[in-house]
Design brief:
single chain; alpha+beta; seven-stranded antiparallel sheet; 12 helices; globular
Length: 408
């Protein structure tokens, strides 16, 4: 399994029956499947994912958090990567950047758009939604709806009794360390688990995702290995929904979207019309609202005097807490570790990324959170392949330079 294979995608296997756009948008030509685009229609496809699957709106509150300009602008930022000096413009052109936002203490130091996007464009999250689902697990724990992260999946989802997930803890779902078999790749023969998930979604049948997860066999003892699984994030979302008795989009609106002061409604893609949100993908929102999510998480949800997350949740979720998910353990030659559905930078004193972590999604989506430096960044991209390791690390070089330039 390669790094390209692990960035969690969800396949819209065709235009969803009954799906329709939630927001008024220009009529753009899009692909039915976000994995089968052309260079010409890719950005439009990512802007219009509410046209490919049924969705549920994530309602914004009336109180919008302002994001004022920072005193220091990064418009002229340069950085070094692969031995060359780069500019923001050259990075955006070369890496097909659709949106770039950098916040310092909640103030905008850089905001750029590309590929036809503007401030009101909604872009799909891909797997950065996993970090949002993880955050909702923290909110449910804080509310007492989830009693303990060491509770088992079957305690909340009786459908999973008698399956390999019966005794898997919520904590090991968060870690991607269930020990249940899953192949997160894009097998051209159509035999991977991702392909099976795509077929389950194409069926438009309530319960199809849980039926698929119930069929997966055990491959290792839980907690012993890291194995990236979009299906597992969907299962985590189902646990949260069952525990709270709420659709994820509604719970997200109450616990995050409103408290974070989002400026506009978002949406979450569903398994079937009126059905379960896809916990591993499918949130569509504006660039600044993705930034507000990162800022909300950096501040541990304390903005506005509310406390929707457990005390210390950010530092628990934003660091590896098991041998299997430690730095350098995920894959040979890859330095990051894994927290609770967040990718985590190695702890290196003096490094701009010391203590930082990031959500990642295929085709180059990032929500970067750096508590030590009080920096949040969002990157939207339309890479022409699902994952490009050189693009990933150039993005980290750009963000490192932004962090250093904003040090007071």
């Amino acid at each position: 399994m390669t790094l390209i294979d692990r960035r969690g995608l969800l396949l819209a296997a065709g235009a969803a029956l009954g799906a329709g756009p939630v927001f008024a948008q220009p009529a753009e030509t899009i692909a039915d499947n976000p994995l089968a685009t052309t260079a010409a229609n890719q950005a439009a496809t990512f802007r219009n994912q509410d046209r490919t699957r049924p969705v549920r709106a994530i309602r914004a509150d009336r109180q919008v958090r302002p994001l004022p300009p920072h005193a220091r602008t990064l418009a002229g930022l340069t950085f070094k990567s692969a031995g060359k000096t780069r500019t923001v413009d050259s990075y955006m052109a070369r890496r097909r950047t659709a949106g770039l936002l950098v916040l310092k203490r909640g103030e905008v130091a850089l905001e750029r758009y590309g590929l036809g996007n503007g401030p009101e464009s909604r872009w799909t999250s891909f797997s950065t939604a996993k970090s949002m689902t993880s955050t909702l697990a923290g909110a449910a724990l804080n509310d007492g709806a989830i009693r303990s992260l060491d509770d088992t999946v079957a305690q909340y989802l009786p459908r999973m009794a008698g399956t390999a997930y019966q005794d898997v803890s919520i904590r090991n779902l968060l870690r991607m360390a269930s020990g249940v078999a899953w192949t997160e790749d894009y097998d051209p023969t159509g035999k991977s688990d991702i392909a099976a998930l795509g077929l389950a979604l194409a069926a438009q049948k309530p319960g199809a995702v849980l039926d698929l997860m119930a069929s997966r066999p055990r491959a290792a003892p839980q907690g012993s290995v890291f194995n990236y699984s979009t299906g597992e994030s969907c299962l985590l979302g189902a646990v949260v929904s069952a525990a709270t008795g709420r659709p994820l989009a509604d719970y997200f609106a109450e616990k995050v979207w409103g408290p974070a002061g989002m400026e506009a409604d978002g949406y979450w893609q569903l398994e079937s019309p009126g059905g379960l949100e896809l916990g591993g993908m499918g949130v569509g929102a504006r660039l600044r609202d993705f930034g507000r999510f990162g800022q909300f998480f950096l501040e541990e949800g304390e903005a506005g005097g509310r406390q929707p997350l457990p005390q210390g949740w950010r530092d628990l979720a934003g660091q590896p807490d098991a041998e299997a998910t430690g730095f350098g353990k995920l894959e040979k030659g890859y330095p990051l570790g894994y927290g609770y559905q967040w990718w985590v930078f190695p702890r290196e004193a003096g490094s701009p990324h010391d203590g930082a972590f990031t959500a990642q999604g295929i085709f180059g989506q990032f929500i970067y959170v750096n508590p030590r430096e009080q920096v949040v960044a969002v990157v939207w991209s339309a890479w022409r392949s699902a994952w490009q390791t050189d693009s990933e690390f150039e993005t980290y070089d750009l963000l490192a330079a932004a962090v250093e330039a904003l040090r007071a």
